Amino acid sequence: MPGNTSKRYPLELKQRAVRMYAEVRPDHPTDWAAMAKVAGLLGVATPETLRKWVRQAEVDQGARPGVTSEESAELKRLKRENAELRRANAILKAASGFLRGRARPARAVIVDFIREHADRQEPGGLRWGVEPICAVLTEHGLPIAPSTFYEWKDKLPTRRQERDQALLVEVHRVHAAHYGVYGARKVWLQLNREGISVARCTIERLMRAAGLTGVVRGKVKRTTIADPAAVRPGDLVKRNFAPLEPNRLWVADITYVSTWAGWAYVAFVTDAYARRILGWRCSATMTTQLVLDAVEQAIWTRQRDGHELASVIAHHDRGSQYSAVRYSERLAAAGIQPSVGAIGSSYDNALAETINGLYKTELIKRRAPWRTLDDVEYATAEWIDWFNHRRLYEYCGDIPPAELENAFYARLHAQPPAELTHS
Fold first, then answer.
1. Do you find a cis peptide bond into 338, omega within 30 degrees of 0?
2. 0.90 exceeded by the pTM?
3. Which part of the chain is the Integrase catalytic domain (predicted)?
4. Around 159, how many Cα atoms within 13 Å sit in the side-chain half-sphere?
5. For 105-135, what is each residue's pLDDT tens digit?
6. What is the count of structural domains for the chain?
7. Structural domain includes residue 387
8. Do 322 and 403 sit in the same domain of this protein?
9. pLDDT reading at 62 higher than 70
């Protein structure tokens, strides 16, 4: 009989074998001979097995030193209790996420937890199992019977699970449609704008499970190269980038993109009211013509829509491109007042730096490497169209910049004209 045979024999049989050995021992020349005779008669596998029973009986009777059967059973019991306590503590630690909550978690959550951890076993510890997990959870205020778990575990997906699957499709769609830059908050806002009512915490949970994240902006590298001999206008903005209406403040700046064909430079002109990009230009060189083309598009954009530019302030840094005579003359011809921030201080042109940072984070870094200037130019055109008309901007109240501008002009046109009173 292989293995540990002491667990395979009834207690009464072991006691009988020990008693018979004591009775027949005087009739045999050695202990071993008597043990072999009794083992053969009772079907015990080997005389060695009976020898262990005899020695243990002698210890229990005090005739031989050693650990008695009672003491051995007590040690086993204590070890078992200790292992069960360690298992209960491990179960509590794993379930702490929903045990700490005030509200009872949904039954599906508890069932999923049991299913996930039932076969778990710590090194040198006990297998967790369904019954022990249910006992621990019940003891700590989440009563659930093993029969309830088995009833639920093979059921069809719950309504919540079915809704999660449908929502996850929409989450992937929105995330991909917006350059993969949206975090949970903006995905939640976009879905609700589309009429899909869902809680923000649900989107956070689904995106976390799907491994979807938004982008995080990196550090900004300055591209300002000042011309110390140039005459510059003063700072008319004083770091106030929150005008009360469009066409009061434009900000401009240049950023750079590394391509396989060399550096590409991109100039932006942005209206500070709704952060809408009005003009832009890509070039292989950082020249005055680059910023001229960007501001020319901004002027054209506003004049096309019939807006006056006499109240516009164009704010930029102290780069030599912006201090060139041709640039200043073009602003003057359009009735735009120039304004210049301090050299080396990104705070004096913080809004333009913000637009540059969003451009680099949401487009350039995510699609790198870039092959040519043409690739950058086409992608920039797509990104600006998305940025102006579809991207949810927190500063604008979580609506696109163009939508905020349209709302302003709609309110303006809805106001009745002021009437003169005659006394």
1. no
2. no
3. 242-408
4. 1
5. 777 788 888 888 888 887 878 888 889 989 8
6. 4
7. yes
8. yes
9. yes
Conformational region of residue 380, where left means phi above 0, alpha means psi within -120 to 50, and beta covers everything else: alpha
Which pair of tokens denotes residue 327? 């640039």
Angle value at C-alpha 388, between 280 and 205, nearest 5 degrees: 130
Tokens of 317: 């840094």
Residues 6 or more apart in contact with residue 396 via CB below 8 angstroms: 274, 275, 403, 404
Neighbours of 340 (CB within 10 A): 23
The candidate with the shortest Cα–Cα distance to 283, out of 309, 321, 257, is 257
| Phi then psi dihedrals of residue 286, to 5 deg | -95, 85
CA pair distance 401, 391, nearest whole angstrom: 8
Q: What distances in angstroms separate CA 258 from CA 5, 7, 36, 180, 370, one per listed residue?
A: 76, 75, 90, 21, 7
Do 385 and 356 lie in a common domain?
yes
CB count within 10 Å of CB 259 equals: 17
Nearest-angstrom CA–CA distance, 364 and 257? 7
Write the DSSP symbol of residue 72. H
